[in-house]
Amino acid sequence: MNEKAVAYVLRLGDDALVAAQRMAALATWAPQLEEDVALANIALDLLGQARALLTYAGELEGQGRDEDLLAYRRDEHEFTSALLVEQPDTDFAATMVKLLFFSAYQRLLYEELSAGDDETLAAIAAKSVKEVAYHLSHACAWTVRLGDGTEESKRRMQTAVDELWPYTHELFASDSVWRGYGFDPAGLRERWLGIVEPVLAEATLERPVDDWAPTGGRDGLHTEHFGYLVGEMQSLHRAHEGVSW
Amino acid sequence: MSQTEWPLWEVFIRARRGLGHLHVGSLRAADTTMALQHARDLYTRRGEGVSIWVVPTDAIGASSPDEKDPLFDPAMDKVYRLPSYYRMPEGAERL
């Protein structure tokens, strides 16, 4: 078993899974029917990525764990997703800013992985990069529209940007797992800023200063919101083990 | 807010090259960009198209059902407008 590969792929899968769970919870809550369908589409894309990645992580691990066991039977501290994706959707602005930050990161990382040596991972990344390119354009459109919108929409967007910005540092924090397999996202920060900063500028939003940079998600140390998320996500499977449609 | 609902748009999809755009439905959006994005989400999720048109519903002039007779009925008894009496050239299966 290649432990470094397992840990690496698990991080990608956990990011997608937690982002999907957050987004899916918004179904029927979007401000418009059309936007509701868009958010559900994005959630399903992310869930598809999570399934492929977790399945692959389970295969690499070779202990007989499939996507369901990895998603539904691990405890809070065993998830290695970034803190950013578990942050709550306090309003639509938070949802869109989170999507902007996360999809820009995913796009860059998947692009690199799609040209990588691991053929399975490259195939998953190549399929996913087209999906996240759309997520990114959706998030960019809303960021500009709301940031450069009314006084109220601008206030909400700036609040979301300020609150979520600190969590973006963790995406690019290098460690032995990131360096041990695939592509180390640490080198993507500049290119990520190259995507995000112009969008914030066009949206007339202020780019926050780089200051507080919380980490811990990659080591299973999550924020206080995470337990509820995992509890809800796993409740059906834990009540009816092995349940399927 | 003076307006609580976004304006209505009609969506037309071209299924593949060589075909015309067909009306597939309508949606609400604030402007053209958003209408295109929503159309993509609502009407091309299963690979239905290669091109999308969105048109503000307001911009479409439509005939009224009351005008059905004057508009369409006069054509019904003018068989000479149809190629009924045209003889197929020998050997041609279709034109």
UniProtKB/TrEMBL annotation, chain A:
- This chain belongs to the protein called Ring-1,2-phenylacetyl-CoA epoxidase subunit PaaC
Which portions of this protein are annotated as coiled-coil regions? none
> Which SUPFAM superfamilies does this entry report, sorted A to Z?
Ferritin-like (SSF47240)
What superkingdom does the record give?
A: Bacteria
What Gene3D superfamilies does the entry give?
A: 1.20.1260.10
GO CC annotation:
cytosol
GO biological process terms, alphabetically, are: phenylacetate catabolic process
Give the species this sequence originates from. Kutzneria buriramensis
Automatic annotation (TrEMBL), chain B:
Q: Which organism does this sequence originate in?
A: Kutzneria buriramensis
Q: What is the name of the protein in this document? A: Ring-1,2-phenylacetyl-CoA epoxidase subunit PaaB
Q: Which Pfam families match?
A: PaaB
InterPro entries on file: PaaB, PaaB_sf
